[in-house]
Amino acid sequence: MSSQRLLGLVALLAFAAVGAALLSQHRFGMQPCPWCILQRLLFVLIGGVGLVGLAFQGDSARRATAVVVLVLAGCGIAAALWQHFVAASSSSCNLTLADRIVSGIGLDGLLPEIFQARASCADAAVNLLGVPYAFWSLLLFTVLALLAGIAFTRPRAARSPR
To answer: Angle, to 10 degrees, between the axis of helix 3-28 and the axis of helix 34-55?
Structure first.
């Protein structure tokens, strides 16, 4: 698979994660905490960067895009781990780093149905198929990082002669 297709897959998976989170929230009542919203924001950013990677043809642009995805995925991995091991045992997420970032950007006021935290970290610590929701997010951030790493090292597809 070419590096551009890998970046397209990165975008698709990241946006699918946001879709799954919104479905979980609005259809199944799994209300997000600030750490959930921060991870949602990171998935949106990763998806956007993946789409940008599709638009550029040069190796340097592809590599730069892959590096940005790697950094964002690393932030997502850290956020998912923090959410599960630290924040989930806290009764309040107010004034945490995630809360400050989300409220500081202002997306919670601009797009509340997508980016507004509606639960405490302890209340948002739920399982999906017996696995903590934060671990599903962790798994996907890890997959996205691996795909970006492969896209960084793999040359773009050779153009076929006409």
So the answer is: 150
Q: d(Cα 62, Cα 56) in Å, to the nearest integer?
A: 7
**At 143, which helix (H) or strand (E)?**
helix 133-153
**Structure token pair of residue 106:** 């202002």
pLDDT of residue 106: 86
Distance of CA 34 to the CA centre of its chain: 14
Helix locations, 2-128, DSSP H: 3-28, 34-55, 59-85, 97-105, 107-110, 112-115
**What averages of pLDDT result for each successive group of 10 residues across the chain (162 residues)?**
89 96 89 90 97 86 93 96 78 71 84 79 72 89 96 68 52
Main-chain phi, psi angles of 98, to 5 degrees: -60, -45
